[in-house]
Amino acid sequence: RLGAVLSALRPALPLLLGLSLGCSLSLLRASWSHGAAEERCLAPGPPAPPARGAPPEAAEGRPGPGHEDFRPRIVPYYRDPNKPYKKVLRTRYIQTELGFHERLFVAVLTSKATLNTLAVAVNKTVAHHFPRLLYFTGLRSAKVPHGMVLVAHGDERPIWLMYETMNYIHQHFGSDYDWFYIMQDDTYAQAEQVKALVTHLSINQDVYLGRAEEFIGGDEQARYCHGGFGYLLSRSLLLKLHPYLDSCRNEILSVRPDEWLGRCIIDFLGITCVSQLQGQHYHTYELAKNTEPEKEEEEDFQAALAVHPVSDMTVMYRLHKQFSRIQLDRVYQEIQDLQMQIRNLTALTPAGEAGVTWPVGINAPFLPKSRFEVISWDYFTEQHLFSCPDGSPKCELSGASKADVSEIIESAVEQLNRLYQPLLRFSKRQLLNGYRRFDPTRGMEYTLDLLLEAATQKGHSHVLAKRVSLVRPLSKVEIIPMPYVTEATRVQLVLPLTVQDLDFVANFLDMFAMNTLDTHDNALLTLLFIYHPYDAQRVGQVDVFAGVKAMVGELEKRYAEVKIPWISVKTEVPSQVKLMDIVSKKHPVDTLFFLATVWTEINMEFLNRCRMNTISNWQVFFPVHFQEFNPALVYRGEQTASSNTDFLRDGHFDRHSFAEACFYNSDYMTARTKLAADILDRDEVLESMEVFDVFLHYSGLHLFRAVEPGLVQKYTLRSCNPRLSEELYHRCVLSNLEGLASRSHLAMALFEQEQANST
Asked: What UniProt keywords apply to this chain's record, in alphabetical order (predicted)?
C-alpha cells in the first residue's frame, strides 16, 4: 500500500520540492533584509556623508536642483469670481498646443540669370523631398517658373541678398522650424541625407554646420561655412543672430556672402563653422570640370551630402540620376541582408523553415475566419477586366488598370529571365489568365498564367505555359499634407422641400433646434420651397407650405436671435444644380454650404466633420449616410429598433445617394462657370446632373466621399421623379429597393410568406 502511494506521488515530487525550496529561500531573504534595516535604524551617530559631487538633495533621496523639470507638481486651478467665465478654446492638433516645430526649412539662393536654368533643375530634382523650400533672389524675371515659391529682395548685391534672406527667414519662419538649410542653386544636395542628418542632431545647441573654410588672412582657429556646399543653422542660433544682423551689415566688409555671414556669427556669437558635430559628419564633394557623374565611384562622392559646383542643368540631372541609382542599390542590398537574417532566424523557430513567408519580409496573406471575410480575386486579360467599378460584368481595360497589368507582365518576364539566364531566355506570347486582389495586410497580389517562348543557348525554342505569382507590397505610408482648417467655420444648411416632403419637415426642424440652436452651434438654415406650377398659381388661396412657414415662425419666436429665411421656386423638374444656382447667388462666396435632405438628422458631430473635411479651393465632401431598413421587414412585430443602431442588422450605407454635400460657394461658382461655358445655352442638360457631377467633371478639387455614421436616416419610401434623367431615376429606385432590408431579412420574409401560403 505504501508503494502504491509513493508511485502516485512520484510525478509531483519535483513540484513539491521546488515549492518548499522557494518558500525557504524567501523566508531566509526576508529575515536578512529585516535585520539589516533594524541595524541601520539603530546605528548611532551622524548620517553618512554624501558621495563626492552629489548635491545634498540627492543624498536625502530627492532630486537635485537640476531636476526640477522631472519633479511632479500639482498646479491648483483658480478662477477669479470677479471676471466673467470665458470658454477655453483648445487647439485642434496636439502639435500646436505643445509648441512643436516643423523639422527643416530650405532656402535656395539664386539670381535672375540662373532662375530659369539651375533653379529649375533644383526644383525638379530635390525640391519635392524637402517639406518647405523657398527661392531667394535679388531681381526676378517677368515670369516665375511653375511650381516655385520665389522671394525677390530688389537688389542683386550678394551681401544685401544674404542680409535680407536671413531677415526674411527669421521674420516668417523663425518660430516654425528647428533647422534652416541654406544652399545655392549651383549645389546638388542629397535631400534624404540632409533630412536624416537633422534627425540625429540635438536642437538644444547652437549649430553652424557645413564645409569649414579658413578666412583669408584671418584667425587660424576661426572658420566659416562655404556657401557653395550648403550649411545648416539651428533655430537657437538664428534667434541669437538676428539682433546683430544690422550691425554686421554696417561693420563687416566682405565680397563673399558666406564669409560675411561666418564673420558675423563668429564676431557676435563666438561660434565657428564645424564639419563634424555630435558624431555626425557633413560630407561634401567638389566636382571637377568636365566630370562625368556616371563614372564617379569614389567613397567620398557616394557619401557626399552636397556636390559643388554644378555648371549647368544637364549635370544637375545626371547627378540626381547617379545618386538615385546609388541609393537604390543600397536599399536593394539592405533588403537582401534583412531577408537573409529573417531566413536564418526563422529556421530556429518552432515552425522551422516552413514558417518563412513569401516574399520574405512581407506579411503573410490574410487568413479569413469565415466566408464573409474571404477576399475575392478579380479576373482580367490583356484587353478586358471582368470586375468593373460600375458593376457591369465586363469592361475594357484602360487607364491605370491597363498600365498596372502591362507593368506586372513585364516584371514577371524580367524575373523569369533573371532566374534562368543564361540557360534559358523567355519572351511573352500571350497572357492566358490573370487574377488580382488587394490584401490590406500586404498589398496587391497577382497570379498570371503566361504563354511563354523559351529559347536555349543553342538556339532551340519551345512554347510552354507557366503560372507565376507576384506581390506589389504596400510601401512606406506617408501623411498627405492638407491645408489647415478649424471647427469655427459657420455652416449654412440648405434644405430643398417639395410637397411630398411635408410629413417629415417637423422632425427635421425639431432635430435642428435640439442639436444646433440649443447648443449654440455656428450653423444657419435656409429653406427652399419648390412649388409645382399648379400650386404656385393657387398660392394666394391655398399655400401648400403654410404649415412649414408656421413652424419656422414658432422657432423664430422661441429663439429670438435666430432667423430662418426661405426662398420660393416654381418648377416641374427640381434639378439640384438649378436650385443650387439660386441659393449660390444669395450668399457670400466664402459660405460653407451643407446641402441636406428632409430625412437628414442634424447633429454637432457631423457638422464638425463637415467643417474639417471641406477645404476651400482644395476639397469637397460628399458623405454616404446610413439608411435604416424597413422595420416591418426587419423586426416583423417582434421588437422595435433600439436607440443604438446595429449597423450590421438595422440598415446599410446608401451609396446610391448623392443628395448630401458639403462645399464652399466659391468652389461651386468656379465649377459652375466652367459648366456654363461647356453647355452654352442647353439648360436641359442640367436636369440630368447633380452637384456631385458638377464638381467631378468641372473642377480640379479633391472629391472626398466616405461613409458617415453620424448621418442616420429613418426608413421611408422616397418618391422618384420620372421627369429627371434616366440615370438619376434609376439611382433613386435602386436606393429604395436596397433600403428595404438585407438579404437575410428578405429571405426570412419570403420564407414566412411561403409558410403562410402553404398552410
From this structure: Glycoprotein, Golgi apparatus, Membrane, Signal, Signal-anchor, Transferase, Transmembrane, Transmembrane helix
Instruction: Find the DSSP H helices in 347-427.
Output: 399-420
DSSP-derived letter for residue 621 is E
- Is the domain 378-473 a CATH 3.10.450.10 member? yes
Q: Where do the structural domains in the chain lie, given as residue ranges?
A: 95-321, 378-473, 491-639+646-746
Each residue's pLDDT tens digit, 382-408:
999 998 877 788 999 988 899 999 999
- The least confident of 109-113, 359-363, 451-455, 698-702 is 359-363
pTM: 0.59
User: How many other CB atoms are there within 10 angstroms of residue 376's CB atom?
Assistant: 8
Cα dist. 659→216, 251, 351, 575, 735 in Å?
A: 73, 68, 54, 11, 12
Q: Which of 70, 235, 99, 111 is nearest to 166 (CA)?
A: 235
Q: By C-alpha distance, which of 739, 733, 663, 730 is closest to 701?
A: 663
Q: In this structure, how many other beta carbons lie within 10 angstroms of the beta carbon of residue 646?
A: 9
Q: CA-to-CA distance for 532 and 545, rounded, in angstroms?
A: 12
What is the structure's pLDDT at 372?
84
Q: Does domain 491-639+646-746 have CATH number 3.90.550?
A: yes
Burial class (CB in 10 A: 0-12, 13-18, 19+), 717: exposed
Q: What is the rounded CA–CA span in Å between residue 357 and residue 365?
A: 9
User: pLDDT tens digits for 450-485?
Assistant: 999 999 888 889 999 999 999 999 877 777 777 777
Burial annotation 437-476 (CB, 10 A radius, 16+ → b, else e): bebeebeebbebebebebeeeeeeeeeeeeebebbbeeee
Model pLDDT for residues 259-311, shown as the tens digit of each residue: 999 999 999 999 999 999 989 999 999 998 888 888 888 889 999 999 999 98
Residue 548 CB-density burial (10 A; 0-12 exposed, 13-18 middle, 19+ buried): buried
Q: Judge whether 95-321 and 378-473 match in fold.
A: no
